[in-house]
Amino acid sequence: AVSGQIACHAELAGSPERALPFYTKAAEHAARINAFHNAEMLYARAGPVAEQLGRPGDEIVELYSARSQMLENAGRHDAAIQVYRDLMSLALERGDAAIEKAAIASLVSCYSDPKDAGDPECAQPLIERGLLLAREFGDEDTESWLLWSKMVGALHYGTADDAQMAGEASLAIARKYGLQERLAYVLNDLALSLRLAGDWESGHVHAEEARALFQEQGNKPMLADNLSQQAWIDHLRLDFDSAFQHAEQSAKVSREAESGWNLSMAILIQGLIRTATGDWGVALADLEESIRLGEKAGFVIAMTLMPSELGRLLRAIGQGEQATALHEGAHAVSLERAPFLLRAIESQLAMDAYAAGKVEEGQRWLQSVQAREPRGEIGTAWLVLADPAIAAVRAAECTGSWDLALEMVLDAIQEARRRDLPFYLPLLLLEHGRSLEGLERIPEAEAMYCEALALARQSGLLPVQWRSHAALARLYQVQGSTAEASTELQEAAVLIESLANSLPDSNLRDGFHRTPAVQSVLAPYRSTAGMRYLPK
Predict the structure, then answer these.
(1) In 13-96, which ranges are continuous DSSP H helix?
(2) Is-contact 451 409, C-beta < 8 A?
(3) Which SS3 state, helix, strand or coil, does residue 46 take?
(4) pTM of the complete model
(5) pLDDT tens, residue by residue, 42-58
(6) Is the pLDDT score of 339 beyond 70?
(7) Is residue 400 a contact partner of residue 434, using CB atoms and an 8 Å limit?
(8) pLDDT tens for residues 375-394?
(9) Has residue 531 got a pLDDT over 60?
(10) Any bridge partners for residue 526, and if so which?
(11) How many CB atoms lie within 10 A of CB 90?
(12) Which residues contact 332 (CB under 8 A, 6 or more apart)?
C-alpha cells in the first residue's frame, strides 16, 4: 500500500532505478483491486522513469499497455488511444520495430472496436504493417491479436465471411501456440459473428469456452462483455428469462470491475426486453440510464443505438418531438463514428417524419436508407434488421407504395429466418399483413395478422399483440363482420390500457392515448362525456 509513496520519494531523491520497481508494484496492486484510476496514474509515472533509465523496449511496451488498459477499463477510451499514439511516436523516434509492432497491435484494437475511437480506415493499413512485422519477429501472439482485431472490424464494417475468416485464422494460431488470453478474446467475438450469421451451435460452444477462460483469468471486464453478449443473444432468441439473468450477472460484474460501457449494455438489454413486453415505464428509465452510463464511459453505442431505441419507444407513446431530437443526435454521431448503424437510425428518422405527417421528409430519409449498403453483422442483424422494412410500410401508408413495402418486408423475414432470429418475426409478420392489406389481399393479410398474434402471445410481446388485434378488427370492420371486429377491439383496448398504466405519469399516458393508432381502437369506448370505459 505504501509502494507508491516510496517510489515518489525515490524519484524526488534522484534515484529513478529505485523508484521504478515500486511504481510498478503499486500499480499492479491497484489494478488487482480494480482501482483503475490509481493504477493508471502510477503506470503514467513509471513509463517516463523506464525511458529515462533506458529500459528494454518490451518493458516500456508493457508499462504503456498496462496504463492504457487501465484507462480502457475506466471507460476513458480517448485517453487510452493517446497512450498508444505516444508509444508509436516513441517507437519511430527510436527506430525500434519491436515497439512499433506492439503500438500497432494496440492501436488496431482500438480502431477496430467502435467504443469512442473506431476508425476502420486507420485500422486497415496498420493491420497489414503489423502482420508483416509480427511474422518477421515470429510473434504469434501479435499475429493472432491483429487477426482478431481484423475480425472485430469486419463485424462492424465488413462481411460475415471476412469476420469469420479472420477469426478462424486468429483462433488457429491461439490454439496452436497456447495463447490462452488471446484465445478467450477471439472465442468471445467469433461466437457473436457465428451466432448472428445463424450458426448457433458453434457460436454457443465458443461463447461458453470464452466465459470459462475469462473467469479463470480473472478478466472481469471481458467476463461482463461475454455475459452481456449472451443476454443480447437470448433477447434476440426470445428467451427473456435467460436474457434477464445474464444481464443481471453482467451488471454485477461490471460494477465490480468499474466497467461503465458493459454496465450500460447490460441495462440497455433489460430496457429492450421491458420495451418488447410492455413494461414501458421501467423501460424508459432503463434506456435513459444506459445512455447516461454509456456516454460517461465513452461508449459510442450509447450515443447512437441507445438513443435510437429510446426514441422508438417515445414515438410509440406519442412523444414524437423528443424521438426526433434523439434520432437526429444519434445520426450526427453515427455519421462520424458508427456508419454501420446509419441505415437503422435513418429508418427511425423516416418513421418519425411519417408519424408527424412530413411525407416528403420521410421519403428523403427512406431513399437514403435504400442507397446505403448494409455494413457488418452488428449493423445488419444485432437489433436493426427490421427497421428499413418497417419504414417502407409507414411510407406506403402515406404514398401507396405497397409493392416496395411488401418486397422489403419479405426480404427482412427471409433474413430473420436465415439467421434464426425469432425476435424479429412477430413484428415483421404484422408488417407483412399490413402490406398485403394495402394490396387488398385480405385473406392473406388476415392469416399474417393471426400468425403474428400467435407468436406475440407465446413470447408476451404486448405491443405486437394489441396492434395485431387492432389490425384484425380493421379487417373485420371492412368485411362487415361486426361481432368479430368488436371482440378484437376489446382485446386491443385492454392491452392498450395495460401499456398505458405502465407509464409513470399522466402526461405520458395521455400522449399514448392520443396517438392515431390508439385513438382508432379506443374511440368506440368513449362516452359523450369523454370518459373511457372498457369491458371487464
Answers:
(1) 16-32, 36-52, 57-73, 77-94
(2) no
(3) helix
(4) 0.83
(5) 888 878 778 777 778 77
(6) yes
(7) no
(8) 888 888 876 899 999 999 99
(9) no
(10) 532
(11) 19
(12) none
Q: Looking at the chain, how many residues does it have?
A: 536
Set of cell numbers at residue 428:
415483421
Q: What is the DSSP letter of 113?
A: S
Alpha carbon distance 151, 190 (integer Å): 8
Of the candidates 385, 387, 350, the one whose C-alpha atom is nearest the C-alpha of residue 365 is: 350
Nearest one of 433, 438, 474 to 453, comparing CA atoms:
433
66 touches 47 (CB < 8 A): no
pLDDT in tens, 154-177: 998 888 899 999 999 999 999 999
- For the segment 472-525, what is each residue's pLDDT rounded down to a tens digit? 999 999 999 999 999 999 999 999 999 999 999 999 999 999 999 999 998 876
Q: Which three cell numbers stand for residue 138?
A: 515470429
Q: List Cβ neighbours of 196 (8 Å cut-off, separation of 6 or more).
A: 160, 377, 378, 380, 381, 382, 419, 421
294 pLDDT more than 60: yes
Contacts (Cβ under 8 Å, ≥6 apart) of 47: 60, 63, 64, 67
Backbone phi and psi for residue 112, each to the nearest 5 degrees, phi listed first: -80, -25
Q: What cell does 365 get?
A: 430519409
Contact 148, 192 (CB under 8 A): no
Please tell me the distance from the alpha carbon of residue 379 to that of residue 374, in angstroms, as a whole number.
Answer: 7
Task: Report whether 487 contacts 264 (CB < 8 A).
Answer: no
Identify the CA nearest to 264 among candidates 274, 276, 255.
Answer: 255
Q: Helix or strand or coil: residue 165?
A: helix
Q: Of 349, 385, 381, 383, which Cα lies nearest the Cα of 368?
A: 349
- Collapse the DSSP code of 521 into the 3-class scheme (helix H, G, I; strand E, B; otherwise coil) and give the result: helix
- Cell numbers of 225, please? 462483455
Three cell numbers, residue 391: 419504414
Phi/psi at 338 (5° precision): -140, 65
Considering 18-22, 341-345, 354-358, the range whose residues carry the highest mean pLDDT is 354-358
Give the separation between CA 38 and CA 48, rounded to whole angstroms. 17
